Amino acid sequence: MPTQLLSATPENIAQAAAIIRRGGLVAFPTETVYGLGANALDADAVAGIFTAKERPSHDPLIVHLSGLDQLPRVARAVSPVAQTLAEAFWPGPLTLVLPKQPAVPVLVTSGLDTVAVRVPDHPVAQALLQAAGVPIAAPSANRFGHTSPTTAQHVWHDLHDRIDAILDGGPTPIGVESTVLDVSSTPPRILRPGGVTAEMLAAVIGPVVLPRDFVGDQGLPSPGLLETHYAPRADLIFCLGPDAAEALAAELSAAQTAGRRVGVLAMDEDANKLTQAGAVVYPLGADLSSVARRLYAGMRWLDEQGVDVILCRDSGASGLGLAIRDRLTRAAARLMNTEETH
Ligand code: TXA
Ligand code: MG
What we know:
Elements: E1 4-7, H1 10-21, E2 26-29, E3 34-39, H2 43-53, E4 62-64, H3 71-74, H4 80-89, E5 94-99, H5 106-109, E6 114-118, H6 123-132, E7 136-137, H7 152-159, E8 165-168, E9 179-182, E10 189-192, H8 198-205, E11 214-215, E12 220-221, E13 235-240, H9 244-257, E14 262-267, H10 268-276, E15 280-285, H11 288-304, E16 309-313, H12 321-331, E17 334-337
Parallel strand pairs: 1-8, 2-8, 4-6, 5-9, 13-16, 13-17, 14-15, 14-16
Antiparallel strand pairs: 2-3, 3-7, 4-7, 5-6, 9-10, 11-12
Helix pairs in contact: 1-6
């Protein structure tokens, strides 16, 4: 099907909402990444998401609502802690895993009796949800396993001719996905770190459990639990631990010696030195929110430059650092953890 690329005008948002209501697929911006949306209560429409993305049906979707008032349509038994979190962080990048209403098709939740729900904080997403009048199921709008899209052009690259329309609302402001929180256990457990940080959650409800894949106080990834996701085409080597900068420099020269073209996702402070060393550099900025916002665009840009290898070093586990570390760990072909050598 030909895909319409639509600027996010009120007329085009109304048209996109009509497409959603009649069972079609629309990609739209959220504050985190672009989502690929369908009417969450229409099983056939939701099936189209899995086909377009080539996503396996065992991976459940997030249901997006226009506001907390819509929650009873998709979730039941909302606990006091879930209610507190929703009131504190919605609209915003927090996804709560809650007991599901029977009206939510099994495909949305991959047969689980829970549903992941959030209220996005982006004017285009909000306008679309309000105009559509139905909950919208939306995974990130990329081919399965690929880097998540932070611009309409990224969505076009992955999904054109597979979906009905893309609403272009410019680059997404946060750049990494929402935090997925399981509130069924006490304390709640982060299933995926994201835009609402562990510190922000702790300030409202007290300590939360870090994702299972991260161990120790530093939240370093545990080897052996890697699944490639969010991945660029080039081999990504992620350098962590106290000597990450030195390890990155060593990887750069080793790859160059082997005749490979090397790209680096670099903090601003490292950019000049790495350019002089012959790397293709994509600057990530100087603070964590800039790194998060630019990370996926950088992976895609370096792929376009035709590099064979992408290097990146860790930027810590505090605040957004944990989500950045999670995505780089999953995108990596190889982890270079200098912690282990000490
Ligand atoms: O920021 C975001 O969350 C973006 C935007 C578009 O909202 N969406 C997104 O969706 O990242 P997706 O499908 O790429 O990731 C959804 C995550 C997956 O890790 C999935 O396993 C988890 O949410 N999830 C969904 N339903 C779940 C459930 N019932 N229990 C546990 N995890 C669930
Ligand atoms: Mg995704």
